[in-house]
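[recover] target loaded
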């Protein structure tokens, strides 16, 4: 992702990276090979939104991440209790 701000507007760019390239990186590290300095991707979608919509999106994403973290912590507690 990439986020750019213009007066009154936020642009969020979502890119696509080839999954095969990403999965090959750990093997390169294991083999001691030099990692590429950059990985080429392509723009998949650009979302333009007002600052109020961005603030709303931020609140929604925060709730989702908090909920997922809480669920993961509870699952970890259950697994440790067994």
């Amino acid at each position: 992702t990439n986020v750019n701000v213009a007066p009154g507007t936020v642009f969020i760019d979502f890119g696509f990276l080839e999954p095969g390239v990403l999965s090959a990186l750990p093997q390169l590290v294991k083999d001691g090979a030099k990692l590429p300095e950059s990985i080429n991707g392509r723009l998949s979608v650009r979302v333009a939104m007002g600052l109020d919509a961005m603030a709303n999106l931020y609140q929604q994403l925060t709730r989702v991440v908090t909920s997922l973290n809480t669920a993961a912590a509870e699952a970890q507690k259950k697994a440790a209790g067994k």
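[recover] notes: The chain has a mean pLDDT of 93.
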